[in-house]
Structures are given as structure tokens and as C-alpha cells.
Amino acid sequence: MIDFEQDSRSPDGPGGPLHRVSAVVVSYWTGPSFRECLGALLGQEGLLEVIVVDNGNDAATRMWLGDLAAADARIRLLSPGRNIGFAAGCNLGVSAARGEYLAFVNPDLVTPPGTLTTVLRCLAANPGAWLAGGRLLNMDGSEQRGGRREILTPWRAFIELTRINRLFPNHPYFRRLHLYEDEGVHEVVEVPTVSGAFMMISKTHYGAVGGMDDNLFLHFDDVDLCISIIKAGGRVLYCGNAPVYHYLSTSDVPQAFVEWHKARSASYYFHKHFLATYPAWVVTLISALLWLRFALISVGTLPSDLRTMFRRRRGRLAGNVTAK
């Protein structure tokens, strides 16, 4: 758990009047960090509401969410009745949002006091900026990879999969995807893409690009959204002055489930954006390599995945007994 000093500054500053923000949190078998996430959000200035999309959680978490919503009218619960995926869950949350701005927040991410207003100021001070992300940090304060990235092309995916860049260190043509290995950034800069763990956009601009692509069940939704924004003439900002803390991998789900959807989303993403600029065989090759990666990882994680499935089954049975 992170302890923060309260920020006593007024949210009304150089960025103009305070806007009201709808935070959208999509949850699926999320761990204990979920409570810390919502607690931090409810302490944010500028917050209008927190829309929780319950894609599936254990009985204890659902009961806690119900109690929290009953105690705080800013918590709004939506349940599609099944796991519809992250992108579709975000779009469902947006359909119910009443705020002028949307903040997409992972359920294992913690926002220090003043985060929402700081990012709002970033957007207000940079005309043409449509989307902004925070400085994504690990819980020890080090920069987390994925917070600022290049556009993921088939060539860059090949570099990441093969690490061929080791043969050509510092060569710009073999530049890696993640920019966290570069010098740390503590100011506001324009970047190609930011992480979907935390990002903010106006509801108007989100609607202008059609929101997230529901076909991206898990992963690549943030990169896809950034590309759509850039194609529409918008800019993407990395707010280095807005640190946020990301626990990572707190959901109680089999790793093979995550990797399968990652490979599926990646294949869809590459076919969607790059068939016009890359030979079809290149896109197919990258997709095949990603599926091979999934197969290799799944074999290694099989024992732990079986334990996860057994643990979740026990949780469901316990929940059914409690309900009776």
C-alpha cells in the first residue's frame, strides 16, 4: 500500500476551470489492489463518478462493491453478466458516463492525490492533444515499461520477439518498442502511444474515433486507440508530472487465458492496421510467431494455471453456498 501526502493545491489553475471526470474501471477477478484503486480515486478532486464494469469477480468482491456503491453515490456498478473484454467493458462504461472527461483506470492502479487535475491541466495547456497518460511507475517508484511507447509495427514486433536489436545496439532502425529505457521524463511530452492502465480523454474526442475496438478483448486496445487518435488529427501526451502506481498482474486468472487473448488481439491489430503497408506474408509471419509464443508460455504455466482454475472454482462454490 502507498501512503501519499495530501495535495492542498486548488484544482483551478493555469489549465482553466475544473472539469468533471468519469473514471471507468473494468474489473475481472481483481485482487486486493482493487480496494486501494477505488479508495484513491474517490479521494481525487474533479471526480464526478467511478463507473465499475464488473466483467466477473468472486462473491466477496461483488458484495464489497455493492456495499461501497450503497455508501457512496459516486460509485456506479455495471454488470454485463459475463466477461466481455476490456475494450468492450470500457465502451459500456462510457455509454453510462456523465462526465465531460473520461479516465480509464486499471483496477490495480493507484492514483496519488491531484492526479486527475494534473492531467486535465496537461490537456488544457496543449491544444490539439486528445489523449493523455500518466508517468506509469512500479510500486518501488521505478518507471514501468509500457507507459510510453513507439507505434507497434510488424517490424518492431519482430525486434521484440527476436531481440535482434542486440546485434545492432543504438541503431535507430532497430529501436525497441518501449521508451522507458530512455532517460526518465518528468515533464509533459508528446509520444506515439501511452498505456491503457491510465489514460484520460474528453468524451467528445473518444466518440469522434468511435471509442475502443470491441474486437480487442485484452491488450492492444490502448495502442489501437492512440493510432485512431493520431489518424484523426489528435495528439497523445505523456504527462511525466503525473505519476501513477501500477501493481501489475493482480487478477486471479490463468496465464494461458491472458496469453491466448494477447496473441489473438495482436493478430487482429496487425491485420487491421498494416495490411496496406506490409506484405501479407509479413503480417501472417508475425501472427504465427505470436501464436508460437503463446503455445510455449502455456506449456510452462500449465501447473499454476490449473491451481488458479481450482481456486476460482472453490470460490464460486463458496459464493453459491453463501447465496443459499
Fold and architecture overview:
With 324 residues, the protein is an alpha/beta fold. The protein has 2 domains: 21-246, Spore Coat Polysaccharide Biosynthesis Protein SpsA, Chain A, CATH 3.90.550.10; 255-323, no CATH class. The protein has 9 helices and 11 strands. It has helices at residues 33-42, 59-71, 86-96, 115-124, 154-162, 203-208, 221-231, 255-274, 280-323, and strands at residues 21-27, 47-54, 75-78, 101-105, 109-110, 129-137, 148-149, 188-190, 193-194, 198-202, 235-246. Strands 1, 2, 3, 4, 5, 6, 8, 10 and 11 form a 9-stranded mixed sheet that branches. Mean pLDDT is 87; it is low at 5-17 and 320-324. The chain crosses the membrane at residues 278-302. This is Glycosyl transferase family protein. GO terms for molecular function: transferase activity.
